[in-house]
Every structure is written in C-alpha cells, then in structure tokens.
Design goal:
By secondary structure, the protein is mostly helical. It contains 13 helices and no strands. It is globular, with a radius of gyration of 24 Å.
Amino acid sequence: MNRLAVERRVLAVARPTLIVLLLISAIFPFYYMVVLSFVPIEQLLRHPERIVVPLGDLTLDTYRQVLRPRSAGGEGFAGFMGNSALVSLVTAAVTLLLVIPGAYAVSRLRFVGRRQLSSLFLVVYMFPAIIIAIPLFVGFSRLGIRESLLGLVIVYVALNIPVSIHMLRNYFDTIPVSVEEAARVDGASRMQTMRLITVPLAMPTIMSTLLYVFMIAWNEFLFALLFLTAKRDLWTVSLGLSQLSNGVEVPKTVLMAGSVLLTVPIVVLYSIAERKLTDGLAAGADKG
C-alpha cells in the first residue's frame, strides 16, 4: 500500500472524528445548560451526574421563578429582557441610521484626511471601553441621564459606530462605481443613488452589521453595571444574570434558566438573520 492510500484512509477516519469532537465540545455545554434549566433542584442534587433526564422529571418552575416579578417572589427577568430588547433595538436602529451615510461618505466622497479617518475608526475601537467609563459616568451624572436607558443607548451607539462604519465601508468599496454613475447620468441625486442602489446591494452586510450591534448591546455588561445598578427596574438581562449568579440562595437550576433566557434570543435572531443573509447573497449572485 503506497503512502497516498494510507494518508487517504487516515484522513477518511480522522476528519469525521475531529468534526464530531468539535461539535460535541461546542454543543454539549449549551445542551447541559438547557437540561439543567428544566430540572428541579432536588433532582439535580440527587442525580448530579445525569446527562439524559426523563421527561417526567422536567419542570417549568425554574422559568416561572426567573420570569416572575420580584414582588411575586421571582427574579424579574421578564422586565430585564424587555429592557434589553428595547435598548438593543433602539441602539441597532440609531446606529444604522448614522452609520450607513457615514460609511457611504467615507467610501465614495473624496476629502482631505479620508484615509486617516478610516484608520482612526479602527484605532478608536481598539481602546478598551473601561478608559471612557469614568468620564462618561461623571458627564452623564451631571446631565441627569446616567441612571436611564437613554444614557445606555447613547453609550452603545457611540461604541458601535467606529467598527460598524469600517464594516460597511469595506463592502461599499466592492460595489462598482459605474453602477452609481449610471444612476447619476439618469438624473438621480447622491442621496437617491445611495438609497435606491447602494443600500439594497449592501443589504447582506447591513443585516450582519445590524445583528452585530444588537448582540453587543444585548450582552454588554460593564456600562449596564456602571449606570443602572441603583435602579433594579431598569436592569438589563446581562446585569440581572450577574446579580443572580452572585446570589447565595439562588439554585443553580434557576441560574441556568436565566442563562438560557440570555442566550436563546441571540441564537434565534442569528438563525433568522442567517437565512436573510444567504438569500441576499444568492439574489446578488443571480443578478450578476
């Protein structure tokens, strides 16, 4: 048997084995978290080693406890998720409204310092957020918007603009200028060209940018902790989960239920957006 045949046989076994191991390492922690979120704490203490739990032992009491308001003996996660959804949606919408014309201007317009400005966006994004945390804390306190969701939205928008402009500008650069020039010859203005031609062609990247901004705002913890700690009714889900994990009397099954509530919306949103991205890319290929 020659060397090439041996290598092919080894790869035929090693490749699927490696793929299975990677899938297990990626999926099993999430699977175990979901399973624990449906198990009563008594069952967990009695059988901590169980991976497969009988259907009769599963319960929704953990989710009821997590979602119920604090006044009813729960943890108030329904309100936290509402706050996070509001902040994330507004942040994503405002960021796109500012980023799309900004990225288009950097990509298409010629002005002094254009290249330096493009590099500056990445340089700003490389600085850790903790550097601006204290100045923002002081400034927002004087403005009276520190302990509010409005202040949180402003911070998230400012943090996401640099990298979002960089992402969209790179895609705008790939769109042929000749397409826009043809529209200009037909009498379209610069804004009409951007709105009717460039933005639809860049929709897959716009969708991915929207998803990215939403995920960052949904999962962000530092500024939520800094601004909203004193007002529990304004907590986001990441802040609520952090306080839940620090609770001594909170069962781990309840903590797992809170973790699932933090994770599942992003997974579902990504699954929906992935289909939209695939459809948009395929449509673009067909038009080409």
